[in-house]
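User: I'll paste a sequence; please echo it back and then give the predicted structure.

Assistant: Echoing your sequence first, then the prediction.
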Amino acid sequence: MRVVLKISGESLKGEYDLDSNALENALRDAKALVASGAELIIIPGGGNFWRGRNGLNINISVSDYIGMLATAMNTLAINSYLNENGIESSAYCSFDITGVIKKGTYYQVENDLKNKKVVVFGGGLGIPNLTTDMTTVSKAVEHKADLILMAKSIDAIYDRNPKEEGAQKLSEISHEDLLSMSLKQGVDSLMVMDLEALSALSKNKMPLYVYSSSKINSIQDVLDNKEGTRVITK
């Protein structure tokens, strides 16, 4: 089984920009997946360091590049934490930062996965106006993953904005229904992923599990559909 684990930047943030408990959660999930025999790619977001324009009057493309650098910082942190705690891991980026992190190719990632290394991939897709959600789906399709695990700041997908009173948690939903619901209510309201990523997810019928890493005891509970929400087309 091949898995892409997306860890949102928001879920990595604690009292400070990078939370030790969040790193421990990433280690817990990586250990469980590796122990199960899964080949694992981790895609971190960057929202704990940089979110949109951060209220600053700067060019939106420049803001996106700053966000890519934020994901590279999270990539280095997660990669180091895994290696220091017994999980062999490699870090790549969509662009080279000389002396810090190298640009990862398809063949390098494939070789590491086949040699049972966890691959942590930062920098998004290396171009502005595309989110790390899109990176996640793109890498899952590129490397023929069996499923995407999405660790977010929300604990599941809801039938409306989870902050609204009366919002109902969904245990399972089809790709078509999620896309339709997102178009009707607005993707920002549902807090799952952006429309481009959701469209690509639906087009490729890629199974997706949305959950909060801080609110589960075991990643197996997510895979068994006891926690979070499963997006699947049967």
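The chain has a mean pLDDT of 92. Residues 60-84 form the longest helix (25 residues).
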